[in-house]
Specification:
16 helices; 486 residues; alpha/beta; 14 strands
Length: 486
């Protein structure tokens, strides 16, 4: 919850209890409580913005007024409450107070941990079209492949300006979460009030001549901002991060002119959508997306019309990380594009045209996996498998290929980390949206994020900045994760 929400909420709940059970309620104190409550409400509304889970709390502002009106009534002065009525009233007050406190906690305006590095964060978005590629998923002939790209970059710590929202069109995203991921739209009603630590179109810090560049590719049904928890920490440590929205494979794409491109399943659902024949082919499109974006980044570094990035991108030290399908794309880029020097795959099955050879990818690589993901069908019920549209024997056969592709992950001295008590989406922002999601999945989002961030920064600091590596000293079993090295 936000600071002013807490202050307003606690004050009004205390006032409610006092007004109901307190014996002596001087009119001046009741008037004072009413005035303070109204002021707190106005300040909260102006600074933080009002939202629906706070409605029960907002109604508490009226309670002192009701009491003042009741005190003017003679009948109210002489009415005596019996013990049963007092008990019932007290219980109702407790229930209302619980609802008042509970709703904002269950449907919070979530926030991201404060960046730990020496830099502030700036951000700017681009709408880039690859004129060399036809867009195959539109009905209009001649459409070219168009991508939204967001770049985050280091700024001076004291930089001021307009704080960037989490997503540009929260209502569109809330609808997409419901339509694509089948998650209740109500969970995402507060996205409009979620803020980041990034300042829109701020100046790039001149503390360093150049900053290493790291590409980010989201998961299937994901979006370019889905790992803000991770991106902000990286940028604060002195990296330029380039997030790619893979149009029609993302949750949704929102373009500057208001156009919206929804997720396109190509008629495939459930187990059919996971088939290697389909996913390997789709991944080729994603690899081409990343290569195109990298071409554009090189042009931006050479000739940025706004002058922000001119000569300030360290193109000799380019890394990449991705979640799920974006993680698979990262592996393909490591093997396919010499410009990418090091990469991380967060819980992504190794879809793609190329297989990791027995000797490994030949570049620094860190694989991160959720323990429930690598467990495969052993943690899946028959009902869950049936809901995917397949049978247990078919699912087990599918996972044989998954594990076969994983076999050479650590070859050549690379790393594989398995996080305990995590799910596939623990490697994204999603579980921050509501504790309801965390409880239903049995995960601790911020604990997982802390581990992911620590290892991410350590990995890229070593391979892109030449700093000492801590990973080698952490190989083995730990309380929250295990780490293997080839």
């Amino acid at each position: 919850m936000r600071t002013l929400e807490w202050i307003y909420l606690i004050f009004n709940v205390v006032m409610l209890v006092w007004l109901i059970v307190g014996r002596n309620k001087p009119r001046k104190m009741v008037w004072g409580g009413l005035i303070i409550s109204v002021v707190l409400l106005l300040v909260h509304g102006v600074i933080e913005g009002m939202r629906w889970p706070m409605i029960p709390a907002y109604l508490l502002t009226l309670v002192p007024l009701i009491v003042l009106i009741a005190k003017r009534s003679k009948s109210a002065d002489v009415r005596k409450f019996g013990r049963v009525r007092i008990i019932v009233t007290s219980l109702l007050v407790l229930v209302y107070a619980a609802v008042t406190m509970g709703l904002p906690l269950l449907f919070p305006v979530f926030s991201f941990d404060k960046p730990t590095g020496p830099y502030g964060i700036g951000t700017v978005s681009y709408d880039w079209t690859d004129g060399s590629r036809e867009e195959l998923l539109t009905s209009a002939a001649g459409d070219k492949r168009e991508l939204m790209v967001q770049i985050w970059y280091p700024t001076d710590k004291d930089t001021k300006g307009t704080t960037a929202p989490y997503v540009n069109d929260p209502k569109v995203y809330a609808t997409a979460f419901n339509d694509v991921l089948k998650l209740p739209k109500l969970l995402f009603s507060n996205l409009i009030q979620v803020k980041t630590h990034a300042i829109q179109e701020a100046s790039l810090s001149d503390a360093e001549a150049k900053y290493p560049v790291i590409l980010f590719s989201h998961g299937l049904h994901g979006y370019e901002n889905q790992n803000t928890f991770q991106v902000e920490q990286l940028v604060s440590q002195g990296y330029i991060v380039v997030g790619i929205n893979h149009t029609y494979s993302s949750l949704v794409s929102v373009f500057p002119d208001g156009r919206v491109s929804q997720f396109e399943s190509e008629g495939k659902e459930g187990f059919d959508q996971l088939q290697f024949s389909y996913m390997d082919k789709l991944n080729q499109t994603w690899v081409k997306d990343v290569q195109f974006v990298l071409d554009q980044v090189e042009k931006l570094s050479a000739n940025d019309a706004n002058g922000r990035f001119n000569g300030h991108m360290d193109l000799d030290n380019i890394g990449m990380f991705g979640h799920s399908f974006g993680g698979a794309t990262t592996v393909q880029m490591l093997m396919d594009d010499p410009r990418v020097k090091a990469g991380m795959n967060m819980d992504g099955v190794l879809f793609g045209e190329k297989r990791i050879p027995a000797e490994g990818v030949g570049k620094p690589f860190l694989m991160m996996s959720a323990d429930t993901t690598v467990a495969g069908t052993s943690v899946m019920s028959d009902d869950e498998i049936a809901a995917m549209g397949t049978t247990r024997p078919e699912a087990e056969k599918y996972y044989e290929e998954v594990y076969a592709r994983y076999e050479p992950v650590t070859a050549g001295g690379n790393y594989w980390m398995e996080l305990s008590n995590t799910k596939h989406l623990s490697f994204s922002d999603l579980y921050l949206v509501s504790p309801i999601l965390e409880w239903s999945q049995g995960v601790d989002a911020r604990k997982a994020h802390q581990i992911v961030n620590d290892k991410t920064i350590d990995f890229f600091n070593h391979y892109l900045k030449g700093q000492p590596l801590q990973l080698d000293s952490e190989v083995g079993e730990h309380t929250s994760y295990s780490l293997k090295k080839g």
